[in-house]
Specification:
11% strand, 401 residues, elongated, hpI Integrase, Chain A, four-stranded antiparallel beta sheet, DNA polymerase, domain 1, Double Stranded RNA Binding Domain, 45% helix, three-stranded antiparallel beta sheet
Amino acid sequence: MSTRRRRAANGRSSIYEDESGVWNGWVSMGHDENDNPVRRHVRGKTCRDVSERVAELEKQRSDTVGLAASNAKATVGEWFDEWLTIIKRTRKPRTWSTYDSLIRTHCEQLRKTSMHRLTVRQIDDLLDHVATTVSPRRASNLHRTLRACLNLAMKRGRLPANPCRYAAVPRVIEHEIEPLRLTEVRLLLAAAAEVRNTARWSVALALGLRQGEALALRWSDIDLDAATLQVRRQVQRLGWEHGCRETKPDHRGASCPLRHGGGLVFEETKSRAGRRVVALPGQLVSQLREQRRSQAVERLAAGPAWIEQDLVFAQPDGKPIDGRADSRAWKALLKKAGVRDARLHDARHTNATLLLAQGVDGRVVMAILGWSQAVLLTRYQHVIDSMRYEAAAKVGAAIWG
């Protein structure tokens, strides 16, 4: 049987029937990194079958404009490594470290998969496994990270579609906020008067500052005469990175003799809303004046060992306080005051609740706490609802007596 072939110009697809009666299709997919042409071949029993498959390849080529054709063999793991290198230039170290940890810890099973063979089912199974073995919230964070990672792959022509877009994300159950009661707040502040850095806990409960923001406060940020405080930065602990050249080192980054990039660092606040000026209650102004006097005594006692960083809350030698030590001090304060167990971040929730309960406008609460999204107010709906009932009762009393 003679071969029937539809001739095509250079770079165009071709379909033909060979001597054995099998239909063949060739599609030009572009060029590889060395500028060599790369073509894909399909076979079928009928011209129609091959034509449909050729059309699919042409669509894939159209969806991946700018992609080197050899990238069809690239693996998901190779893209993970490339993506982490790209975003390290634009993300804060703590954010990048979180992305790196999520992918390194949970995505090993995807690394050898070809980019063009990555499916929604694989993403579904991965998220379900993480939600079951770790937590739904962890799975939700992983989904957001993978979605951002693969979105960039699409923009750069490495992937025709993002499977994360259609994945089933495990539902995260938001637990009801349990702020400290006013009586508990007073017990805590009474107990704090007997410990070092007394004002640290007043700042947490009366101003609602995040832990990193409070530990990064400097005296230059505070105007005690004007009773104002500026939030400009936060202190964070970064994980150590390996300095050795081993591909798979048998030790942690913190144990690496050539480690770098870790420890406590000062960073700008997370968002523009986080950079804010907060008014100070008169009682807190007095506590901060006492804090400055106490710190001056510690500075004299430390002598040459004192490391001046202008921090409001510091270790006895002037160094920054580690967040883990700060959290342990909070737990000790709860125990000393005889107050139920609570997270340090619950002090921030407590401040938000107290502000709303006092009738402070939601927009003002957002400005005080450094929120950039009004949706965060919905977490305090129970407080807002109680205020509505109180307002209705006042209206009723005014009308009917």
